[in-house]
Amino acid sequence: MAEEVLSRSYLIKTFGAGGNGSVRDPAEVLSCAVGVMGKSREDISRAADDWRRLPVEEICSLRQVKNILTPLTAIVGHLEDGSERRHLDAWLDLIPKLP
């Protein structure tokens, strides 16, 4: 599923955003990414605060989250200002904290 987020983010970056429900709908890509991560932003943030002390499996899980979030930086400009944009910005703020 991380590959889907990467591919869809690339399509949006390259060809622009599409309409509601399309493969290039930035809101749908964000929703897909959040679903793939499977944890709340708060839970991931807490784990990232002290990731060096976590078991290897959890560190790998946090790295996967970073790999999912990083391509989303390309779609920020395609979301209108509002709650979805703020939601994405909050997720992207986690990137520097993640392994």
Features:
99 residues, mainly alpha, 5 helices, elongated
Structure description:
The chain is 60% helix and 0% strand. It is an all-alpha fold. The chain has one domain. Helix 1 runs antiparallel to helix 2. The two termini are 20 Å apart.
Beta-strand fraction estimate:
under 5%
Structural class, from helix and strand content?
mainly alpha
Q: What string, H for helix and E for strand, traces the elements in order? A: HHHHH
Number of strands: 0
Low-confidence stretches: none
Helical fraction equals 55-70%
Secondary-structure map:
Layout: H1 2-15, H2 26-37, H3 41-49, H4 56-69, H5 83-92
Summarize the structure.
This protein is mainly alpha-helical. It has 5 helices and no strands.
